[in-house]
Amino acid sequence: MSLSTRRKSISVQTIRRLPQYLRIFYNFHTYGRELVSSTDLAAETHLLPIVIKKDLQSVGAPSKRRAGFKVAGTIHVIEQFLGWNNLNKAFLVGVGHLGAALLGFDGFKNHGLEIVAAFDTRPEKVGVPVNGVPVYHTAQLTSIIEKENLKIAVLTLPAAAAQGVTDTLTAAGIKAIWNFAPVNLKVPSDVVVQKEDIASGLAELCAKLKSR
Amino acid sequence: MSLSTRRKSISVQTIRRLPQYLRIFYNFHTYGRELVSSTDLAAETHLLPIVIKKDLQSVGAPSKRRAGFKVAGTIHVIEQFLGWNNLNKAFLVGVGHLGAALLGFDGFKNHGLEIVAAFDTRPEKVGVPVNGVPVYHTAQLTSIIEKENLKIAVLTLPAAAAQGVTDTLTAAGIKAIWNFAPVNLKVPSDVVVQKEDIASGLAELCAKLKSR
DNA sequence: AAAATATAGATAACAAAATATCTATACATA
DNA sequence: TATGTATAGATATTTTGTTATCTATATTTT
């Protein structure tokens, strides 16, 4: 066993459930609850108590036997695990419908993300701030990334433009891309890409619906 | 073995990958390609050829040995499987940033979804069509659902309002809800709910980023 | 015509994730 | 004080999903 305690790696599914737990714990916290059991959480989530228990144990949530998980402490370990207790400066490329919607969402600040700039190629978009975020021309990407030392990119642009912009981004040293364009981006191996595909969710819904 | 051939059930993960395959097959189709191998598809997707092969086999995609999967036939079986070859009339509740973004997206017609109405409680939203879709007051939900015989709801409203609206929807006979509000809706067991949580993807990104 | 090759098809092995079961303990109740 | 109970903690089992391997067969190459 090495110095940094070797914990069993946490599953993707667990990670994806963490924000949900966090939301519920915030809620309980505002009501002054100090302990919440996996049974209570199950009632709020449609998840089985045992799934919740294992998830929380895997991130090292503090607990009390027979009583439940400690609210404040669990919030802390989840935020810590996700890195949501300090802000990362991010920017968005593509101020279309979805881009504007994401810019309009203030909740990212609770999720470790601070969108400080946006980019678009369309003249009518450039120079018009959205929800207080300045919109620059895409030609300025490299210079502003460097000036502001930005590390995370949110891509909400048309599929056809995505790879080109991505190449610019990686050349500028971007290390994380949250990609909403329906393309599989090719990036150097040290760049993290998280792809969102809204059609996947719809496919799931349709499949469930058909099997009824 | 029953009359309706009992096929092995298709995994959720496979279902979520189907739209991606579909997109690529459409592409090849427009270029006139008749056969695509799993190796070719792997180059486009970052998935392993064997994953693709199994996915396509599981939906019964037609193929030719040594050559690949038949483009037209595979498109057909995937569309068939997802029910995306005929349109379901849907509506959206909550014309905020995200709701407007979804209304602005015309691609749903290729995904079996036709959004024919939207609802909001805010007077300044009601009566102003978005991308050609009429916006009604939420009070009219039940009557319009019945009049238009709507079956699928898209919820893009604040968490606090979601359960109330859902109760109205289920009472009106809605059978499928695509939920973008960060709440776990309580619904009768015959109602299908597909929950989208944008924070899950962000959590995944942050976790990957931290482990670098 | 024969040999090499790329692929679907089938099956097997492996890994990840979900679920079940059992134990120990703090607390509540009688 | 003794007994019952709800829960975390630990471990085992089952299910689901991924990856590997082997076979058969069309196609291409020699």
Keywords:
homodimer; 212 residues; alpha/beta; Arc Repressor Mutant, subunit A; Rossmann fold; 6-stranded parallel beta sheet; 3-stranded antiparallel beta sheet; disordered N terminus; DNA-binding
Structure commentary:
The structure is a homodimer. Chain A is α/β, with parallel strands linked by helices and about 210 residues long. Chain A has eight helices and nine strands. A six-stranded parallel sheet of chain A has the order 6-5-4-7-8-9, with helices on one face. Chain A has a three-stranded antiparallel sheet with strand order 1-3-2. The N terminus of chain A is likely disordered. The interface between A and B is large, with 53 and 53 residues. Chain A binds a DNA duplex (30 and 30 nucleotides) through helix 1, helix 3 and strand 2.
Q: What is the CA-CA span between the terminal residues of chain A? A: 50 Å
Number of helices of chain A: 8
The CATH homologous superfamily of the largest domain in chain A is called NAD(P)-binding Rossmann-like Domain
Q: Please identify the oligomeric state.
A: homodimer
How many strands, what sense, and barrel or not for the largest sheet of chain A?
6 strands, parallel
Secondary-structure blueprint:
The structure is a homodimer of 212-residue chains.
Chain A (H helix, E strand, L loop, with lengths): L11 H19 L4 E2 L1 H8 L3 H10 L4 E2 L3 E3 H12 L5 E6 L3 H8 L8 E8 L14 E3 L3 H8 L3 E4 L3 H13 L4 E4 L12 E4 L2 H13 L2
Helix pairs in contact in A: 1-4, 2-3
The structure holds a DNA duplex (30 and 30 nucleotides).
